[in-house]
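Morning!

This is the sequence you dropped in the shared folder:
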Amino acid sequence: MPIEISVGKRTYQSTDRKHSEEVMFESGKYNNGDFTAEMTGWPCTGERHHNCHDLFKRQSKDRTITVIVEDDHGGYAKNHGKEFGATGTITYVNGIVEYS
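The structure's back. Tokens below.
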């Protein structure tokens, strides 16, 4: 099952070439202002030519992006220093990352 990301009532899914986070940012709807998103997995950290964790860091310039991770589809929790299957929250502010 691919990782999905939701902001408000809108849910974005991966395509054959892009992860759901990339699809969301390319929509242009979340290129400005603070927002909170919910994801079914942790952002990838460089797997298969994608690095959505870095994408969030870059996109958080001059704003706050909060990502609530509700599941560990993809098994990327370990790449964020978490145990397999863990959930949690990532806050990105001006490229700085905080986990809770």
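Headline: The CA atoms of residues 25 and 31 lie 6 Å apart.

More detail when I'm at my desk.
O.
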